Amino acid sequence: MGRIRRGGYIFEFWIGDHPPRHVHVLKDKRLIARVELDEDLTIMYGQINRRIFEIIKDVDEGRGFEMKHKKFKKVQFDNKKRVFHLEYMSGLKLDCPYFSLKIKGKVIGAGPDAEVGGHSFYFTLENGKTDYVPFDQPLHIAQNPEYMKEQTLFQMTKRLNEFIKQEDISKRELARLLNTSMSQLMRLLDTANYKKELSRLIEIAAILNYEFRWEFKKAA
After folding, report:
1. What pLDDT is recorded for position 67?
2. Are residue 151 and residue 90 in the same domain, yes or no?
3. 10-residue mean pLDDT series, the chain (220 residues)
4. Which domain holds residue 128?
5. Residue 164 CB neighbours (<10 A)
6. Where are the beta strands (DSSP E) in 28-172?
7. Please, what is the Cα angle at 219 between 213 and 220, to 5 degrees?
8. Pick from 14, 37, 62: which residue ends a domain?
9. pTM for the model
10. Whole-angstrom Cα distance, residue 130 to residue 94?
11. Which phi and psi (to 5°) does residue 22 adopt?
């Protein structure tokens, strides 16, 4: 499943559907939202209305700051090396191997997808099948530092919201302990806000009596 059209919106999923599972919501060539496909449909970017929420629930049951690198400028394919050479509008260039997208056949065409304003790129195989790749999937595959920072902030913020519910502490009390305002606390706990300092999230975790640990592991 790569792309579905419902209710005037376009919903795009990563090829292979590997973690983190999420969907892109687009309309009129504009990225409306990125939503993690968890139980609560946590918003990673933007906003969704009730109609979008219901469509995502329906689609998923049947089968998430402003990222700088979210539009493709140029897409080239190399069947000999079996890799896509990608260039984003931001100027970032990276390679995306065919195998990372589970492509086994020969690619005969590829480029930025005009239908969604370049937020994805398309590729066409020799057998005539066309599929689409959202802008953040190559970033995940390449472990792009800015993308990884975004994912770290998102996952930490999501977990902190869960901890707050578990510990049964009021947000007003938490704001007092942080020596900050309620409005600033809400910005810190907004999963779609990536303009915040990691140290403040660690501070919230400490107040909730949770210890934050870094983990590094050898790349495969």
Report:
1. 62
2. no
3. 78 70 87 83 86 76 56 96 96 95 95 91 95 92 88 90 90 93 91 85 93 77
4. 72-141
5. 17
6. 30-36, 43-46, 72-78, 83-88, 93-97, 107-112, 120-125, 130-134
7. 135
8. 62
9. 0.68
10. 22
11. -155, 170
